[in-house]
């Protein structure tokens, strides 16, 4: 079962993950061959015409994996405490200049963060009581109605499992993937169901499920765009759903390749990041063009005049020699749909340290969370 972990834990398990997904593991035997490129600078840059500017530093002793800006002033970031791995929530009310700790005083392991407005917000959680042999499958989340000043735990007795990647549509309806893990005879099975709430999180109802819906190996669940839900399935599938749960389409991106993100340029034009490459479709997923090989995350993507795609991605080019997985990553830019790329200077483990979902203010500015630093990506 996938759950959000601190980035160091993700990196330590990278080699095992590569083997389990059928990918070629990094070659750690070429000692000395990559010494020069593996002497990384601490500065992360981006190719022109984009600029990367550090907006904020969250004064915490750990990394963060999720954040949300409600506007240019107020926002929240979610991480896990070093001791216990419990929810650690920080808040800014001045555009990231300063951050205050508004963590729940409830010992729960966090999965995702989402605020409906300035006051009402949620942290979905994983109850690990009895795990791994007999996990407590009660569904709950932590809720605040005063902007994080206080929190309460809310239980959903009609559900079973943990809520992942809580999001909302333009009407304010909530959606999440419900991961229900069942253990029997030493074997675990995970059932994944898309659920929705139309009453601000008071109740959740099942919306869609299928044998190949959802992925336990991907940090990405789904994105909502143009009144449709684009959700990851197993082995590089995408389920396209209406917000009422009606299945519109089911397309295959790339076999045996977990999806890391979906950028919807239009109902026909999709840019998709996977653990083996970034791809593009201009026919709603009927066919795909490989833009770039490598473990990639989409930072921003837009359609240009003339039909070309402009994109900035974080991509793993190679791995450093050694006993611990250290990826050689770059931020890469294209304005001709992947025919050519301009790469930044190499950076260490950037792809895996980036929070799973950038925040888009508009097509010219995107905010990124990298460990405990917030950056503005502008053109």
Report on the architecture of this protein:
With 379 residues, the chain is mainly β. 4% of the residues lie in helices and 47% in strands. The protein contains three helices and 29 strands. The protein has helices at residues 7-12, 14-20, 350-353, and strands at 51-57, 64-69, 75-80, 87-92, 100-101, 109-115, 121-126, 138-144, 152-160, 162-168, 174-184, 187-197, 205-208, 222-225, 228-232, 237-242, 247-252, 259-264, 270-274, 277-281, 289-293, 296-303, 309-319, 327-334, 342-343, 347-348, 359-362, 365-370, 373-378. Strands 22, 23, 24, 25 and 26 form a five-stranded antiparallel β-sheet that branches. A four-stranded antiparallel β-sheet has the order 1-29-28-27, with no helix packed on it. The chain is globular and about 55 Å long. It starts with 6 loop residues before the first helix and ends with a strand.
| Radius of gyration over C-alpha positions, nearest whole angstrom | 20 Å
Secondary structural class? mainly beta
Number of alpha- plus pi-helical segments: 3
Sheet with the most strands?
A: 5 strands, antiparallel
Mean pLDDT: 87
Number of strands: 29
Share of helix, binned: under 10%
Low-confidence stretches: 1-33
Write the layout of secondary structure elements.
Blueprint: H1 7-12, H2 14-20, E1 51-57, E2 64-69, E3 75-80, E4 87-92, E5 100-101, E6 109-115, E7 121-126, E8 138-144, E9 152-160, E10 162-168, E11 174-184, E12 187-197, E13 205-208, E14 222-225, E15 228-232, E16 237-242, E17 247-252, E18 259-264, E19 270-274, E20 277-281, E21 289-293, E22 296-303, E23 309-319, E24 327-334, E25 342-343, E26 347-348, H3 350-353, E27 359-362, E28 365-370, E29 373-378
Antiparallel strand pairs: 1-29, 2-3, 3-4, 4-5, 6-7, 7-8, 8-9, 10-11, 11-12, 12-13, 14-15, 15-16, 16-17, 18-19, 19-20, 20-21, 22-23, 23-24, 24-25, 24-26, 27-28, 28-29
